[in-house]
Amino acid sequence: MARVHVFISGRVQGVYFRDFTRQEAEKLNIKGWVRNLNDGRVEAVFEGPQENLSTMLDWCHKGSPSSRVDNVEILWETHEEQYNKFSITG
Asked: Are strands 86-88 and 42-48 parallel, antiparallel or unpaired?
């Protein structure tokens, strides 16, 4: 199990990015959260099997159908297993 904290920039707000992120995370059995930031980026924390996180990160580089992802900042962190589902916050 692993944990990754990401910051996604581009046209990622107002294009259902968070909802598509939640759907993809649930398909991959990933726990954590996603939220919009005031600076226009989206922030997310994903916890789950390493292979599933790699698939999720690939998805983050593509994004939702109407989004345009310019950059994904990836920070690997210590897995804490503190989430029991994936949710949209903020």
From this structure: unpaired
Domain boundaries along the sequence of the chain: 1-6+17-66
22, 29, 36, 38: which is the annotated catalytic residue? 36
Question: Annotated catalytic residue: which of 3, 18, 22, 41?
Answer: 18
Fold of the 1-6+17-66 domain: Alpha-Beta Plaits (3.30.70)
Predicted local distance difference test score (pLDDT) of residue 90 = 77
Looking up tokens 């990015």 gives 17
3-state class (DSSP) for residue 61? helix
* pLDDT tens figures, 30-42: 999 999 999 999 9
Q: Is 18 a catalytic residue?
A: yes
Would you call 36 a catalytic residue per the annotation?
yes
